[in-house]
Design brief:
2 copies of one chain form a homodimer.
Chain A lengths: L10 H21 L5 H7 L4 H7 L3 H23 L5 H16 L5 H9 L5 H5 L1 H16 L9 H17 L6 H13 L12
Helix pairs in contact in A: 1-2, 4-5, 4-8, 5-8, 5-9, 5-10, 6-9, 8-9, 9-10
The structure holds a DNA duplex.
DNA sequence: GCAATATACGGAGGGCGCCTCCGTTTAGGC
DNA sequence: GCCTAAACGGAGGCGCCCTCCGTATATTGC
């Protein structure tokens, strides 16, 4: 809970930490979440050991790169709790989420993997965001506009699946939005009983 | 087009080919599509060079492993063209597809990757199946039970996304079916105008 | 300023996986 | 049985991961 160590970082350590982060950001933006850690270290002009000291796992590095985004998405969700239409609010948030997941190629994959491993830095780090998203879902469900049997976890996974698909066909710019539309149609409860007639 | 070479395979070649296939099947079932090719060769008691001679790429190997399944899925789609309810038929096929995609962990990923690369053996190999699926979709659209703006490619990608998600949470047995339900709800045109009221 | 020491650095090295290349072996036609 | 086209196998180069530990240096207390 106490992230601030008694002593501040040594000057060289802090410098290397920042260089690493900058180069990681650049290379991961370029090559995706699987980018070579050795190359990041090289570009940051730092030994590979130094990289591993600051970021013991690839996920730790990713987490640092993403934490701000997660927090922002959490805040966004909380803000949207006041929006007039709960379903629109949810859609809007899902949109923001999937867009955010596209910053780095491979991120959806990493997120889902993290979801299965509670030890993962990513898991902990996006916890708040997930909770905020859940609140948005619950509100829409209370309002009766989203099916009650949809779990927050399911929603999260589905959003990642959409991001994953969108990532895989990058030349198709509209794909994410299209799929989100399908998702929302699929989980909403229609104004007129949602045409559940057939089944 | 002429897959049968003039001469039949030499006996040792044929034997190795079959051993490789058997071990590949086993190891990929165990470890997913990313299984080590060197280990496959080792288990088949064959040099790595021999593996590469028979299967120049990982995809070629996968393709051989999967072709029968693809053909079966294609046939299934064609068969379902006679089913009474076009939407049910489509759902049934999507179910078969996503279930099939779960045989090997990582397969959805491989399929989507193949989709972007027309040179890929997998791309060519599942072409027939995709076409058969398309026919099923078109029929449902003609019947007015599926939104007309859904592309066969989109449907294919979505089905893979669902398979991908299901693969990522293997301990949750019902996830694939749940997500498929959402998908079908999302792409159908409801019996009573589908509650498009709000938007 | 100058030790003394806690911190931090760096990269060699072991492991694994990919894939190619080419010297060696062998099946099968004659 | 010989000869040759066909097939084999694995060494070796490359890239990546990650650990470990000898070396360097920033900081602190004097």
């Amino acid at each position: 809970m106490d992230d601030t160590p008694r002593r501040p970082m040594r000057a060289d350590a802090r410098r290397n930490y920042e260089r690493l982060l900058a180069e990681a950001e650049a290379l991961i933006a370029e090559r995706g979440t699987g980018a070579s850690l050795e190359e990041i270290a090289k570009r940051a002009d730092v030994g590979i050991g130094t990289l591993y000291r600051h970021f013991p796992t690839r996920e730790a590095l990713l987490e640092t790169l993403l934490r701000e985004r997660f927090d922002a998405l959490g805040a966004r969700a909380t803000g949207l709790l006041d929006a007039p239409d709960p379903l629109d609010a949810l859609l809007e948030w899902l949109r923001a989420f999937t867009r955010g997941t596209r910053v780095y190629q491979g991120l959806a994959e990493s997120m889902l993997a993290a979801l299965r491993d509670e030890e993962s830095e990513l898991y902990a780090s996006c916890h708040g965001m997930r909770d905020a998203g859940r609140a948005l879902l619950v509100r829409a469900q209370r309002a009766g506009t989203v099916r009650a049997d949809l779990t927050a976890l399911d929603m999260f996974v589905l959003a990642n699946a959409i991001a994953w698909a969108a990532e895989a066909l990058p030349e198709d710019a509209g794909i994410g939005e299209r799929f989100l539309t399908f998702l929302v149609e699929g989980i909403r409860l229609g104004d007129a009983g949602a045409g559940q007639g057939a089944r």
